[in-house]
């Protein structure tokens, strides 16, 4: 298995503790919760940062975890975490039949952490997500890894996330404080319910408080109590 080096910034202590609390709650969701969708209602709410940090913490806690970059239209992971796309097989290559399962899963510099990267943008990936090959990918990953975290586009932007959600055991919804309307959040929650994906919890991101200076960039995470144990 080939290896990808990811550059992951260190979190401020308080934010790291909040993410660690999220990790613990995911752990108590039960053994049947393996495929976890991480999404938002609209762009720029912080879902990809949450995806990477949760993946890192679960992996470093001893759980064999794979992060699937399923934002096929506009992935930000490869640019934010400084891994080059030269000679890297993308999930798009796998879904279009250009490579096999063993070619698209990469080991990383995070212990127990693996990734299925997305290095090429697709204008209309719906047909690939609806193809049986995508379901087969998730089935194989579920067999090989304790957790499969799937970073997807915003729910209210395109239909991709709803299709992926229908194949997941649960979802984490990231909401940016003071930016996302209650109407859009409710619409996202209803959409998850409609496709049969259990909402494990919500993360309220970028809450401005006078007592926590780290909120200016990373935000304050709360409502972990909404996580349910299966």
TrEMBL record:
Swiss-Prot/TrEMBL keywords: ATP-binding, Kinase, Nucleotide-binding, Transferase, Tyrosine-protein kinase
tRNA processing among keywords: no
GO molecular function: ATP binding; non-membrane spanning protein tyrosine kinase activity
Alphabetical list of InterPro entries matching this protein: AAA_dom (IPR025669), Bact_polysacc_biosynth/exp (IPR050445), P-loop_NTPase (IPR027417), Wzc-like_C (IPR005702)
Signal peptide: none
One of the record's GO cellular component terms: plasma membrane
Limits of the AAA domain: 46-176
Enzyme Commission number(s) from the entry: 2.7.10.2
Record field: catalytic activity: L-tyrosyl-[protein] + ATP = O-phospho-L-tyrosyl-[protein] + ADP + H(+)
Pfam families recorded: AAA_31
Enzyme class: transferase
Listed Gene3D superfamilies: P-loop containing nucleotide triphosphate hydrolases
SUPFAM superfamilies associated with the record: P-loop containing nucleoside triphosphate hydrolases
Family membership: Belongs to the CpsD/CapB family.
Name of the molecule in the record: non-specific protein-tyrosine kinase
Organism (species): Ruminococcus bovis
Taxonomy of the source species: Bacteria, Bacillati, Bacillota, Clostridia, Eubacteriales
């Amino acid at each position: 298995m080939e290896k990808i080096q990811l550059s992951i910034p260190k979190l401020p202590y308080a934010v790291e503790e909040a993410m660690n609390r999220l990790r613990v709650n995911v752990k108590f969701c039960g053994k049947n919760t393996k495929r976890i969708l991480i999404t938002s209602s609209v762009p720029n709410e912080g879902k990809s940062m949450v995806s990477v940090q949760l993946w890192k913490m679960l992996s470093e806690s001893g759980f064999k975890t794979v992060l699937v970059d399923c934002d096929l239209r506009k992935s930000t992971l490869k640019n934010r975490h400084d891994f080059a796309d030269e000679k890297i097989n993308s999930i798009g290559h796998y879904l279009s039949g250009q490579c096999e399962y063993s070619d698209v899963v990469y080991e990383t510099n995070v212990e127990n952490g693996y990734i299925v990267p997305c290095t090429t943008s697709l204008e209309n990936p719906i047909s690939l997500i609806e193809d049986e090959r995508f379901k087969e990918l998730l089935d194989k990953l579920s067999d090989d890894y304790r957790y499969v975290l799937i970073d997807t586009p915003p729910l209210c932007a395109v239909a991709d996330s709803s299709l992926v959600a229908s194949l997941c055991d649960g979802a984490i919804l990231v909401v940016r404080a003071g930016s996302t309307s209650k109407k859009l959040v409710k619409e996202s929650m209803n959409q998850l319910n409609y496709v049969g994906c259990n909402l494990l919890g919500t993360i309220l991101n970028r809450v401005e408080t006078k007592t926590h200076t780290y909120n200016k960039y990373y935000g304050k995470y709360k409502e972990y109590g909404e996580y349910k144990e299966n």
